[in-house]
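Lab notebook, bench 4. The sequencing result for the construct came back, and we need a structural model before the next group meeting so we can plan mutations. Quick request posted to the team channel:

Model the 3D structure of this chain.
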Amino acid sequence: MIACLDACVLFPTVLREILAGCARAGLYRPVWSERIVEEWVRAAAKLGPGQAEVARGEAAVLRAEFPHAGVEPGEAADLWLPDPADIHVLAAARAGGAEAIVTLNLKDFPRRELSPLGISAVHPDAFLLALWQAEPRAVETVADAVLAEAERLSGEAIGMRPLLKRARLPRLGKALG
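Done. Here's the predicted structure in token form:
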């Protein structure tokens, strides 16, 4: 499966790391455009000084790990969404041959606009839960590694369910917790 990752799922670190880990495990193939990556960097910059540079470094790592993930959306004049600012995400998904757009903003990607293109919008919790149902051990391994790193960085025990709940992945957290 090919999935286009919206900027809103690249910006929160835990969510991005789980999605990237599942892609590394071969559970799906991610795609994104340079504009999506730049939206992620701009969102990270709002956290404070130096955060844009950190995000640029993280984006460079993802680009190196997934060299074929970057797509050029091309012409999007034939596409329509309720928010014109989201059309570039749909164009990237189409250019990358994606079957899904993984996004927290489902309302911005109505089914009636995506279905004729063979694309669906899916919340990351539902997307990751489906991957877990298909390959439970692989997703558990990824989530365990992300939890271990989060606990290492924070210096305290967090627990899987609380970590995933904060990452907007409550159903996956319940399944893994």
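Residues 2-176 form a domain with the Rossmann fold fold (CATH 3.40.50).
Will bring this to the meeting.
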